[in-house]
Amino acid sequence: MVRLNLVLPMDKIMPIISGFEAIGMIRTYEKKNQLTPVPIIGMYRHGFIATRTDFLEAGANDFLARPIRRDDLMDAIDGLLSERNEGAKCRYKSFY
């Protein structure tokens, strides 16, 4: 069975906790329960290097700066899901 799980979006600023805190909680839960890490894409309105580095250090697998271009989003999703699911892609015609 192929699982196509993905956490998106994970923004730096969210209403209750930051995206960094949420990512940390997800990664802690995965480790505690010996789960395969779910791919997480971080997003923020600025594409500053520090923000990208902060997301990756927090445990995100990739980062996209907003405004997000559809092709960049699809490439990020395809890359992460392909790595996780032995080459399976997530290119649905409804996204186009």
UniProtKB/TrEMBL annotation:
<dbReference type="GO" id="GO:0000160">
    <property type="term" value="P:phosphorelay signal transduction system"/>
</dbReference>
<feature type="modified residue" description="4-aspartylphosphate">
    <location>
        <position position="11"/>
    </location>
</feature>
<dbReference type="Pfam" id="PF00072">
    <property type="entry name" value="Response_reg"/>
</dbReference>
<keyword id="KW-0902">Two-component regulatory system</keyword>
<dbReference type="InterPro" id="IPR011006">
    <property type="entry name" value="CheY-like_superfamily"/>
</dbReference>
<protein>
    <recommendedName>
        <fullName>Response regulatory domain-containing protein</fullName>
    </recommendedName>
</protein>
<dbReference type="InterPro" id="IPR001789">
    <property type="entry name" value="Sig_transdc_resp-reg_receiver"/>
</dbReference>
<feature type="domain" description="Response regulatory">
    <location>
        <begin position="1"/>
        <end position="81"/>
    </location>
</feature>
<keyword id="KW-0597">Phosphoprotein</keyword>
